[in-house]
Specification:
single chain; 407 residues; alpha+beta; Arc Repressor Mutant, subunit A; 13-stranded mixed β-sheet; 5-stranded antiparallel β-sheet; rod-shaped; DNA-binding; transmembrane helix; Sig_transdc_resp-reg_C-effctor
Length: 407
């Protein structure tokens, strides 16, 4: 936009720099587009200016500007007519426009407003500056960067939360015996495994025997193997209400020293994974012995485990018989088994109603769906999530792995 002042028809003045039409005391402010259009018409007064030239000058690189140009021509005509200047802009159909009024350039304006806007003193300049500042702060790149930082921060917070709440394994290893529990069990039972180390030291020491004890939410289990004497013993003792964990652990250690027939059977040559469950640490005669026969198959790139669980009492009578099938997922040495279906083949109803331990074991084995976790412990045995954590181990087919890795 130039600083020229045009005199139109002897008494009308147009200042391109200040966007104004004036005559005597009357003054009209033009829009930016109106001022640009009138200046082009004044510069080419008496000549036809094609529509496409006007459109490209006023709205560069835009399409469908016919309506915009028609609107600006109409508005400009009305403002000129308000000064009594009729038919100043003539339309050449399908070509363009011609400015017919006499034109004379009389000088240049001071353009104080334009300088004020450039210096940032005018309200319009302040608005433009604020808009530019806003655009700078809220540019697409900045928005993407902030969004990325938020995603990273949220991911990091979630990772820290998962790590701080992860169910981690806690173990005390005293050479011949190890004591394990999980952080979830520590929180649930309000115990610290380190405080139990003096009790574990009292476990009888046998040079050829390796003992693992696990404290779970509902039971204390232990597993011992003696390859020299070919003995493998396993027991699970349900925790008694109203007794501290230290008291229960001491009771289990005392029971372990007995190792009588009412405590455990020697499963060293037994082909299946077997364990005895006791209602308390004193190991009364009414134990429940569970044998699990498992078979792993591969189908459609998936490992599927099919297991039969048979529970008997101390007299050898069958208490219940279950079949289950599930998918296996392996993570290094750890195993997750998602049980898809459990079929109850037989339950001794009398034993179920009269023996609380039988009811507990059936309830733990027969939910509609469950996911069991097996975390590998030293010696080739596993921590199972069953009943809040009990010790499990491979059957006889994998027993040599235990001997080779640990003993």
């Amino acid at each position: 936009m130039s600083n020229k002042i045009y005199k139109i028809s002897e008494d009308i003045y147009f200042s391109a720099a200040t966007f104004r039409l004036s005559k005597n005391e009357k003054d009209i402010k033009l829009s930016n587009k109106e001022a640009e259009l009138l200046e082009m018409l004044c510069e080419e007064a008496g000549s036809v200016i094609p529509r496409n030239i006007l459109q490209e000058a006023l709205w560069p690189n835009q399409d469908n500007t016919d309506t915009n140009l028609n609107r600006q021509i109409l508005s400009l005509r009305r403002k000129l007519e308000s000064f009594g200047l009729l038919d100043a802009i003539d339309t050449i159909p399908r070509v363009g426009y011609i400015f017919c009024a006499p034109i004379e350039v009389t000088g240049e304006a001071e353009n104080t407003e334009a300088r004020a806007e450039t210096s940032g003193d005018s309200p319009r300049a302040r608005r433009q500056y604020s808009r530019r500042k806003s655009d700078r702060y809220f540019s697409p790149k900045r928005i993407m960067l902030v969004a990325l930082l938020i995603v990273v921060a949220c991911s990091l917070a979630a990772l820290i939360y998962r790590y701080s709440n992860k169910n981690t394994l806690r173990t005390i290893n005293l050479g011949h015996v190890s004591l394990s529990t999980t952080s979830e069990t520590e929180n649930a039972l309000k115990l610290k495994i380190d405080m139990l180390a003096p009790l574990v030291k009292k476990v009888p020491r046998n040079e050829e025997e390796r003992v693992s004890i696990l404290i779970g939410k509902e039971a204390i289990s232990y597993f011992s193997i003696d390859n020299k004497n070919k003995e493998l013993l396993a027991n699970v003792f349900l925790l008694r209400a109203g007794h501290s964990v230290a008291e229960e652990l001491q009771c289990v250690i005392n029971t372990m020293a007995l190792q009588g027939k009412n405590v455990s059977h020697n499963y060293y040559h037994y082909p299946n994974t077997t364990v005895r469950y006791h209602s308390n640490c004193q190991a009364p005669d009414n134990w429940v012995e569970i044998a699990r026969k498992s078979k792993i198959m591969v189908a459609m790139n998936r490992e599927i485990v099919v297991a039969t669980v048979i529970a008997t009492d101390h007299q050898g009578q069958t208490l219940f018989n279950l079949d289950s099938v599930g998918n296996i997922e392996r993570d290094q040495g750890d195993i997750a088994v998602e049980i898809k279906n459990t079929i109850v083949n037989f339950i001794d109803q009398k034993a179920l109603t009269s023996n609380g331990m039988v009811a507990t074991l059936v309830a733990a084995l027969t939910p509609p769906k469950q996911k069991l976790l097996f975390i590998q412990l030293p010696g080739g045995i596993y921590l199972s999530s069953y009943m809040g954590g009990v010790i499990s181990w491979p059957s006889r087919g994998n027993l040599n792995v235990i001997q080779r890795n640990e003993l």
